[in-house]
Design goal:
Length: 291
């Protein structure tokens, strides 16, 4: 998705949406019912039909974007219309109700519609802003390449530990096996490093190793007390590898957080759209049966 979606064909659908909004306001202004404005007047019914039609059409976008062979306009055009007409739907729906609300299925449908539109607006925001930030954070490589770099650092750490006493090999293996970054969506959004490590002679359950801090602190202590210069140099080499791992994991954490931000709104938008369709059907059914 590119910013040109909002400017598609010289903002064609912005003008369409403004036309719908303007016509709705004019009709509402000149409408002079004998009772407070509400969905039961001729204007209320008219705007209700327009609103229901917009909801169904906007929902159809989810089908259209998966029909790659369709000739019914471009996906880019549909998405541009989806954005602008979704905003127009808010105005149409509010005027349709005449700003009369209550604890009923009609207000429920309105609230669900607002949730869908707001979550969709957030989706537009993140898809316009975050892809560029993801690209900048990755530095021209893909997520899989970053993971390959992390795997390479782990292999080099294992080789470096072989030239040190056996406890170092166990130490490195523990850190690799207990590295955990972004295991859940919530952890990715919080940029939460849940890594742990079992330090030689320490708690068998391990300690927190977020940012490789525990591992680096242990290596720094060992290096400062090493009497053999060769051993100290090897520990320094292992420390350098873990510092590179820490930098790479921070880069991956940001990547995971941005990716999660691109996805999280769909967990609201899609189910709320389904709920809206059900509430819309109930709203229409109640109107025809009892209004």
């Amino acid at each position: 998705m590119h910013e040109s979606i909002l400017a598609f064909r010289k903002r064609r659908y912005l003008w369409v949406a403004l036309g719908v909004i303007g016509a709705s306001f004019v009709a509402y202004w000149i409408h002079d019912p004998q009772e407070p404005p509400n969905g039961g007047t001729w204007l209320g019914y008219t705007l209700g039909v327009v609103g229901a039609g917009l909801i169904v059409w906007l929902t159809w976008f989810g089908v259209r974007k998966r029909r790659y062979a369709s000739t019914a306009g471009t996906v880019q055009g549909w998405l541009s219309a989806h954005v602008y007409l979704g905003m127009a739907l808010v105005v149409v729906s509010l005027l349709h109700s005449g700003f009369q609300y209550g604890w009923n299925v009609h207000t429920l449908a309105l609230v669900l519609m607002l949730v869908v539109v707001i979550s969709g607006a957030y989706g537009v925001f993140v898809y316009l802003k975050y892809p560029q930030r993801i690209s900048e954070n990755r530095g021209g490589v893909s997520n899989s390449e970053l993971l390959m770099q992390l795997e390479d650092l782990d292999k080099r750490s294992v080789r470096a530990a072989r030239d040190l006493p056996p406890e170092y090999a166990e130490f490195v293996d523990s850190g690799i096996r207990r590295t955990q970054l972004g295991a859940t969506l919530w952890q990715r959004l919080r940029n939460d490093d849940q890594s742990r490590i079992v330090l030689p002679g320490g708690d068998p359950a391990g300690v927190t190793n977020a940012g490789q801090e525990a591992a680096l602190d242990w290596l720094a202590e060992k290096q400062s007390t090493a009497s053999d210069p060769d051993v100290a140099a090897k520990i320094g080499e292992l420390s350098a590898l873990l510092r590179n791992k820490r930098r790479l994991m921070k880069q991956l954490a940001v990547d995971l957080k941005l990716q999660a931000s691109l996805e999280i709104w769909l967990f609201v938008h899609v189910p709320m759209t389904a709920a809206l369709l059900v509430a819309l059907f109930a709203h229409i059914l109640v109107v025809f049966l009892y209004w």
